[in-house]
Amino acid sequence: xxxxxxxKTKEAMEGLLLWREAQxxxxxxxxxxxxxxxxxxxxxxxxxxxxxxxxxxxxxYNIFEAKLDAMKLIRFSQRPIAKPCAGIGGWNVIIAxxxxxxxxxxxxxxxxxxxxxxxxxxxxxxxxxxxxxxxLQYALVICCVLVYLLWGRFDPPYAEKLNAKQLFVEDxxxxxxxxxxxx
Length: 183
Hints:
single chain
């Protein structure tokens, strides 16, 4: 009899916790999270030559932000519903554009605004400053393209297994939905 009372109490507590969670705000989308990280990446890479400590500051901030987001998800919102997806979608293009602009801004900051060309006797005239700017810009773009071509499309060894698992889950989900619709 005591075991039955304990089981009922546990079931009632679980029901109460689920009811409380249902009263919270739903976790709608991750778009704001992606926006926040993308803005941080943009500031960090575009002005890396001005503030070289930016990656370390961003790392410390991201640790703090991860703890804060975990608390937000656990205490203040409903559990998010997992939705299958192949990647981060349009954010890839946005990140690529930001990285492209960062090549231009960092080249400009190094060649035109910094005293570095004067220190190595490269700044003879203003014309040469702009030539160095263009040359550095193209060199950085070529480096980015080479990195992408060499490592950008590399799939880790476990990727094939994960892709097969994802296809299986999608097929099972589609089968479940059609069975539910038919019944």
